[in-house]
Amino acid sequence: MTFPSRLSLVLTASAALFLAGCGTQTTNIATQKPGDPMQQVAELLSKAETAAPIKSAQLKTEAARKLIQLGRKDEAARLLEEIDLEYLTPGLQFEIAELKARSALEQQDGQSALRYLQQLTPETTINLPVEQQYKIGEMQADAYRYQQNPLSELLQLIQLSNYSLNEKTETLHNRIWDLLIKLPAPQLKQLSQQPDNSYYQQGWYELALSTTTARDLGQQNQLLQQWNTLWQSHPAQQTPPSALLAVTATDTLSADHIALFLPMSGSLEKPAEAIITGFMTAHYNAVRAGDSTAKVTMLDSNIIKSPEQLYQVAQERGIDLIIGPLEKEMVESLINFGPAPIPTLTLNTVANSQQENVYQFGLSIEDEASQAAEQIWQDQKSKALIYTPGTDWGQRAAAAFQQRFTQLGGTVLDSYSYGRDENYSEQIASLLGTEQSNQRRQQLIKIIGERPEFEDRRRQDVDAIFLSALPQAARQIKPTLAFYYAGRIPVYATSHIYSGNEAAIEDQDLNGIRFVSTPWISSAPSAAHLQLAQQRDNTDSRYGRLYALGIDAFGLFPFLAQLSASPSAKIEGETGALSISENNQIVRTLNWNIFKQGIAIPME
Question: For residues 48 and 63, what is the distance between their CA atoms, to the nearest angstrom?
Answer without folding.
Answer: 10
